[in-house]
Design a protein that fits this description.
Length: about 775
């Protein structure tokens, strides 16, 4: 793609021919420095003269110490002989400095006032003083003074003109030229096929492209080309790419610039550049003008949105006038993009200027899959890659994030010496982009910290498995990452969702509180690891109260407004101080309910929490499939059929990583199995960190609320006894007491699996469940 970026849309050759050669500028700078140094030496030399009294001068003459004397109109200048000196003679030091700088011998000059003395001349003749006279020339001094001021000013002016030219303002005083980048070849290299995941936005722009291709059929029926289209959406969704695709499909010149390009250091430059931009665009019509981040100059003139800036208002007024004034029949279209439509001036958004507002939102699952295919078309991938599962797991990501995932996966494949991208490369890139940072494999945590982090993460996962309406767990790890997380629990949605119920939000809060609840249940103390969980839970609870109308106290009252919905801006409260305090109380109530629910569930399933935390502590990373397998066996739930269980994007990638680690361990002589739990149980190692158990640490709930009868993710996978009076922990303790098996033996069985359990048919499993009930 040949691109010619011109300043102001003019000819690039004219600017090139008018540019001052670089050697000339360097020569001028050198001359300026030389004159400055010469002037400095001259001033220093001027200060190398010492005034003496006339009587002292006469004494020096009569003592035969004066070598030469020059008589001027008003004073006498003289030098001393080599062996003579004058007391307190500081001028001698200056002479030495000048002599070192110039390399020439310099004598100190003295002067005294000229007095009519008839005895002076005979005395100087008697002592062989060389006498001379000097006539003052006022013209020479005047020329020198003028030259010493004019020449430096001229050089500074030339240097200033050069800098202004480099800034795009012409030879000094024309900074109002537009800095728009013009694609002269009438092709941006981007087509609609290069933009995926934004079908609705492309459909809105197809009509514009057809108008630019076939304007006659629209003009005959009286239709006019929309003067402008405003692309609105979050960052990274492809607004600029869509604008380039419009120009590429239409085959017309494309003027591209940012809103900040109109603003300069001089007042009035913005308005001048707007005029110049539209003037150049009309010369090359039909064409497209694209202004990215138009909110930089299009902010509302209302003071609430930062109005009152005269320079920006002048630029906005000129833009409004130009959009009203140009003729749409020539095919001039203005496209603009912004993330903050709420701050734009109403006059800019009215029909007649920006006739269409096109929403470029985050893509759905289908759009993400199409986007991944577009970015992966030039990347060789092996047969293990499943872009469909990656599109499902990457809910909430935008086009730029997906492009970054593909690129990072390609880099990862090259790093490992492969010529094809695999599923595990995509998962590593997904973690890098979506989760944040790489694994810090060399960071060493103490045993106590690793145990706390293991219980923290298992607390999240266990709450997700025990509650209804939660996203399934895909991965649990206690390996620190470069973004600061000491571990994380990855949950991805099973399907695309656009609405969330109150129960789902409450379950999310309880899941977020699971980490802190696990710390308190096991260790009886709090850590700073729950900071991010608390922040997320607070945001959810505050949105439930102020925006979603889910509070019993305030009902369906809107108490907050999101300031920048496409930039994830904060919600500004629309209430007084007393109401704000009541809102805080209601938010705290939602959070406390979630925390109490988390504590209750983890206390009831304490054995499951300990056993899975033991497994995670030893392996550092486990998959969601491993987690659910151990969870089902500990809770007495039947395992699902392998052919009926869908394999997620994370599961497939983790399985490949596990196979690679197993093969590497086999080559090095390590015969241990990939999923084996160590002999020693975890309970013994935790004892030293557990405080003395107190029954009153977690009192019973006083509100009388009990866990609702609802189906959990674990219950959805098989039949569960619903009338059992004892908890899963009590059943497990009773079975161990009857069989005499300890916790370490049972952990091995859970990791390796029970052969007899695997051979059971679904009918036998269902019958066994009925017998237990």
């Amino acid at each position: 793609m040949n691109q010619n970026y011109n300043s102001g849309g003019g000819s690039g050759d004219d600017k090139k021919n008018s540019r001052v050669p670089q050697p000339v500028i360097l020569l001028l700078v050198f001359i300026l420095l030389a004159m400055f140094f010469t002037s400095l030496v001259y001033n220093r030399a001027s200060s190398n003269k010492t005034e003496v009294p006339y009587t002292e001068f006469y004494r020096l003459v009569t003592s035969d110490q004066v070598e030469k004397a020059t008589i001027n109109r008003d004073r006498i200048e003289f030098t001393l002989k080599d062996n003579a000196s004058y007391k307190n003679d500081k001028a001698q030091e200056n002479s030495k400095l000048i002599q070192e700088a110039t390399g020439q011998e310099v004598k100190t000059t003295y002067f005294t006032a000229y007095i009519q003395d008839s005895e002076l001349i005979p005395a100087m003749k008697q002592h062989n003083v060389v006498i001379s006279g000097k006539l003052n020339s006022d013209t020479t001094a005047l020329i020198y003074n003028i030259a010493s001021m004019v020449i430096p000013l001229a050089l500074l002016w030339i240097l200033f003109a050069f800098l202004m030219r480099r800034m795009g303002g012409g030879l000094g005083m024309n900074p109002g030229k537009s800095n728009a980048k013009v694609y002269v070849e009438k092709s941006t290299g981007v087509k609609f096929k290069d933009v995926a995941g934004q079908d609705e936005a492309k459909e809105s722009l197809v009509e514009v492209v057809d108008f630019l291709h076939n304007p006659r059929k629209y003009i005959e029926i009286g239709a006019k080309l929309p003067k402008g289209a405003l692309l609105v959406g979050p960052p990274g969704t492809g607004k600029t790419l869509l604008a380039k695709a419009v120009a590429g499909e239409a085959g017309v010149p494309f003027f591209s610039l940012a809103g900040s390009d109109f603003v300069e250091m001089f007042v009035g430059v913005g308005a001048s550049r707007v005029r110049d931009l539209f003037k150049e665009a009309q010369k090359q019509a039909p064409c497209i003008i694209f202004i990215d981040e138009i909110d930089a100059i299009g902010k509302s003139r209302d003071s609430r949105f930062g109005g009152g800036n005269d320079e920006r208002e002048q630029t906005l007024n000129q833009l409004l006038a130009e959009m009203d004034g140009f003729d749409t029949s020539k095919g001039l279209l203005v496209l603009a993009a912004t993330n903050r439509p709420e701050v734009l001036d109403k006059a800019l958004l009215r029909p007649g200027r920006f006739d269409r507002r096109i929403i470029v939102d985050r893509p759905d699952q289908k759009g993400r899959l199409a986007t991944l295919k577009v970015h992966a078309k030039d990347v060789p991938m092996d047969e293990t890659v499943d872009l469909d599962s990656l599109a499902t797991a990457s809910a909430g990501l935008v086009g730029s994030d997906l492009a970054n995932i593909i690129n990072e996966a390609a880099i990862c494949a090259v790093k490992h010496g492969r010529k094809f991208v695999s599923q595990k490369d995509l998962f590593e890139a997904f973690e890098l982009v979506a989760v944040g940072g790489r694994e810090k494999k060399n960071q060493v945590m103490s045993d106590q910290e690793r145990k706390i982090v293991a219980y923290h993460e298992v607390g999240h996962a266990l709450l997700a498995a025990l509650q209804k309406n939660t996203e399934p767990v895909q991965k649990i790890t206690i390996v620190p990452r470069t973004m600061g997380a000491l571990g994380y629990t990855l949950q991805t949605p099973e399907e695309e969702k656009f609405l969330e119920t109150k129960e789902e939000l409450q379950a999310r809060i309880a899941t977020l509180m699971g980490g802190r609840a696990a710390e308190m249940v096991v260790f009886g103390s709090m850590t700073s690891g729950a900071a991010n969980d608390i922040e997320q839970a607070t945001n959810i609870a505050r949105a439930m109260v102020t925006r979603f109308g889910m509070s019993d106290k305030f009902g369906m009252m809107g108490l907050a407004t999101v300031e920048s919905q496409y930039l994830d801006g904060r919600a500004a409260l629309n209430c007084g101080e007393n109401t704000a305090a009541q809102i805080d109380d209601e938010v705290l109530s939602f959070i406390n309910q979630g925390y109490d629910e988390a504590v209750r569930l983890l206390t009831e399933h304490r054995n499951t929490l300990d056993r899975i935390a033991d497994f995670l502590y030893e392996k550092e990373t486990i998959t969601g499939k491993q987690f659910m397998k151990i969870f089902r066996q500990l809770e007495g739930l039947p395992q699902p059929q392998e052919d009926q269980e869908a394999v997620s994007f994370v599961e497939s990638a983790m399985a490949m990583m596990e196979a690679d680690r197993a093969s590497q361990a086999g080559e090095s002589g390590d015969q241990s199995s990939a999923g084996q739990v160590p002999e020693s149980g975890y309970q013994d190692r935790v004892k030293e960190f557990k405080p003395q158990e107190k029954e009153s640490v977690f009192p019973e709930r006083s509100d009388g609320m009990s866990r609702p009868e609802k189906e959990t993710p674990a219950e959805r996978s098989g039949e569960v006894p619903g009338a059992a009076e004892e908890s899963a922990v009590e059943r497990a303790d009773a079975e161990r007491a009857s069989t005499g098996r300890d916790a370490s033996e049972e952990s091995r069985d859970l990791a390796e699996g029970d052969p007899s359990e695997k051979e059971k048919t679904p009918a036998e499993s269902a019958e066994e469940g009925k017998e237990k009930a």
